[in-house]
Specification:
This protein is of the alpha+beta class. It has four domains: about 75-140 and about 155-265, Histidine kinase-like ATPase, C-terminal domain (Heat Shock Protein 90); about 270-410, Ribosomal Protein S5, domain 2; about 450-550, 3-Layer(aba) Sandwich (Rossmann fold), CATH 3.40.50.11260; about 555-685, Four Helix Bundle (Hemerythrin (Met), subunit A). An eight-stranded mixed β-sheet has the order 8-7-6-9-4-3-10-11, with helices on one face. Strands 12-13-16-14-15 form a five-stranded mixed β-sheet, with helices on both faces. The chain is elongated. The N and C termini lie far apart (about 95 Å).
């Protein structure tokens, strides 16, 4: 759509270089469009017949230009209703401002002409009428505002009345909104009378290149009435009351001026985000949330939100935000399906600009539902697109920081409620840890994470901050262990060493948590380390200390050599003895990369079978005092083959405990062989006299 428009602009003398920039104001004069700013050149020497430099004015085919302006600026036909209602609202606000500054005009207006916008539909005649009881227009206003492209009377009014509260509700700024009606109209007739004037006027456009202005002989009330004869075909739907009601609910539901459609008040709810949070009750929030869900997010249930974030500030930007957290607990499937969703709408002065404004918040906060209204957001001419610039980035950062601060306060205020919320939305925070590039915000997100801990009962959770406060005096790292559940965590050979040394370990059960920990890397200047890393480094030192008091003999040396030969160099790089007491026959450590990285590669299928084992240079640490290892040493003397099978199973068990076993298909047949061999061994023992 945009590229075709650019070609049209070039064809018509490059009157508009880009839709994203303001159109040069000009006046329609007959069949010509004359810009107000015309290039001036100094005359230099030349002949009398042909001056060296001549001055010309731009001209344009007005009908074609109006089509370009209307059709290229607006992506949907329905937005003309939003634009005309916004203009009508501005007119009413101007009247309100005028009456405040000039009481005589207020008394002249009378109570019979209340501040409102009336819309009438006539389906049989394909007609739509929009009437406002605003300030109205005189002849100069009609020429300057309706006959001049990109001349904004509302913007001029705001500039003149800058600083006055009564001018804050003025919406218009570009001077092109009226022309959106040209998309759907065969004919437009504007009847108007300005406040304080006795002269009524009509402005008429019938699809021709120009327009005409006539005096009205009959007395008409002040204000403006726009009568639109709609084009046949698809455009005729805008003469239906139900269609207009849907469009009003979508774009203009929260305009402060009452809107009556065929006599029925449509916008019955206030824009709660403009109020002070103390003025808004829980019931008002519930009703407002249901209205948002009904008009913009029908996939959500109209239930009571579990959290409400109401934020209002003018520094460093003008921001009015009202955001909700749905009560619904998000499933993994719903989370994955929502990766491109956004349920926050952008408003400007109570008028919807964009229903799904992804630019306002980072993607990991897409679970929030609500409204952000900011006068500082730079919009394009059609008010349908947000211009990405430093202001948007600043707005995004301010909102994100406020949201993080809110959840932090809720975590402290009511831990039980926060845990319930976290269980349904934790995956979004984890996504934020992985994707957020702002380190300060990333740290804020890390404060919101919850974990089970070896120091707490099952089901109880802790934060990273609370963990750090409990750390041992000489502890330099935050330790965590990944297992599918708590039972496996507490029976892990890696956790066993920590339990014996008094270190607290965070238990994580979701594979995504491992990725989160690797992205987070550190917290409060303390590294986050998987327990396997500690076992490889500090655990080996403890084993060395324990082994010093143990005597070595030829039998043990031969057994360790036998273990390495039985497993093969592709499976194990070193075999080390350990004489500390342990409930596990063996534990595995790797050298080149950490366990987390390998587990992620296994999950994603980037490495298969045992092809990766040699690269890892694993060290198998055998608990020499464990019954299985002691039994294998004895079994080796009687049945080397069976002893070798037992040691292979010990090795695979260690891989399972480390989460590094990629293919378990051989385990079943091996276990069957081991059981068969043991039965034969037992049988021969019984038969031996």
């Amino acid at each position: 759509m945009l590229s075709r428009s650019f070609l049209k602009f070039r064809y018509y003398g490059r009157l508009i270089n880009t839709i994203e920039r303001q159109i040069v104001p000009g006046v329609i004069n007959g069949d010509n469009y004359i810009p107000r700013s015309v290039a001036h050149f100094s005359t230099v020497t030349g002949t009398k017949e042909t001056p060296a430099v001549e001055k010309f004015e731009f001209h344009a085919e007005v009908k074609n230009l109006l089509n370009i302006v209307a059709e290229s600026l607006y992506s949907d036909q329905e937005v003309f209703i939003r634009e005309l209602i916004s203009n009508a609202s501005d007119a009413v606000e101007k009247r309100r401002c005028r009456e405040m500054s000039e009481p005589a005009d207020a008394s002249a207006s009378g109570v019979e002409n209340p501040l409102e916008i009336r819309i009438e539909t006539d389906e049989s005649n394909r007609r739509l009428v929009i009437t406002d009881t605003g300030i109205g227009m005189n002849r100069d206003d009609l020429i300057n505002c309706l006959g001049t492209i990109a001349k904004s009377g509302s913007k001029d009014f705001k500039d003149v009345n800058k600083g006055k509260t009564s001018a804050e509700q003025i919406i218009g700024q570009f001077g092109v909104g009226f022309y959106s009606a040209f998309i759907v109209a065969d004919k437009i007739k504007v009847s108007t009378k300005k406040l304080g004037s006795n002269e009524g006027l009509t402005w008429t456009w019938d699809g021709a290149t120009g327009y005409k202005i006539e005096k009205v002989t009959d007395d008409i009330p002040f204000g403006t009435r726009i009568e639109i004869e709609l084009k046949d075909g698809e455009c005729s739907k805008f003469s239906k009351s139900s269609v207009i009601k849907d469009v009003i609910s979508k774009y203009s539901y929260f305009i402060t001026v009452p809107i009556l459609l065929d006599g029925e008040r449509i916008n019955t709810m206030n824009a709660l985000w403009t109020k002070h949070p103390r003025e808004v009750t829980d019931e008002m929030n519930e009703n407002f949330y249901r209205q948002l869900v009904k008009t913009h997010h029908q996939h959500l249930a109209p239930e009571r939100p579990q959290y409400t974030i109401h934020y209002k500030t003018d520094v460093p930007l003008s921001i009015r935000a009202l955001l909700y957290v749905p009560t619904h607990k998000v499933t993994q499937l719903e989370y994955a399906a929502s990766s491109s969703d956004c349920t926050v709408s952008l408003y400007a002065r109570n008028v919807l600009i964009k229903a799904n404004a992804k630019e306002l918040l980072p993607g990991y906060l897409r679970f929030l539902v609500g409204v952000v209204d900011s006068e500082d957001v730079p919009l394009n001419l059609s008010r349908e697109l947000i211009q990405m610039d430093k202001i948007i980035l600043k707005l995004k950062k301010v909102l994100t920081e406020k949201i993080m601060s809110f959840f932090m306060s809720q975590q402290k205020k009511d831990r039980v409620k926060y845990v319930n919320f976290y269980n349904g939305y934790s995956m979004y925070f984890k996504e934020g840890i992985c994707l957020e590039t702002d380190q300060s915000i990333k740290e804020s997100i890390s404060n919101l994470l919850l974990f089970e801990s070896s120091k707490l009962k099952k089901g109880e959770v802790t934060t990273l901050k609370e963990y750090v406060e409990r750390m041992k005096e000489n502890q330099k790292e935050i330790y965590y262990l990944y297992t599918p559940n708590r039972q496996l965590a507490e029976s892990s050979p890696y956790y066993e060493m920590f339990k014996n040394n008094g270190y607290e370990v965070l238990f994580i059960y979701d594979p995504a948590d491992e990725i989160v920990m690797s992205h987070l890397s550190q917290y409060d200047r303390k590294s986050l380390a998987p327990v396997e890393q500690w076992v490889k480094n500090e655990g080996s030192k403890l084993d060395d200390e324990t082994n010093k008091g143990q005597s070595t003999n030829m039998e043990k040396e031969e057994f360790l050599t036998f273990v390495k030969e039985s497993l093969g160099q592709t499976k194990v790089d070193k075999v080390q003895p350990s004489y500390r007491q342990s409930d596990h026959p063996a534990v595995l450590t790797i050298s080149n990369v950490d366990h987390t990285a390998v587990r992620n590669l296994l999950r994603t299928g980037q490495i298969k079978n045992m092809e990766y084992i040699a690269f890892l240079k694993p060290t198998l640490i055998l608990s020499m005092n464990h019954p299985v290892i002691a039994g294998a040493m004895k079994l080796k003397k009687k049945n080397k083959e069976l002893a070798g099978l037992v040691l292979e199973q010990v090795y695979d068990n260690a891989l399972v405990s480390a989460g590094l076993l990629g293919d378990s298909s051989q385990m079943i047949s091996r276990i069957n062989k081991i059981m068969g061999g043991l039965m034969e061994q037992e049988k021969s023992t019984i038969l031996t006299p």
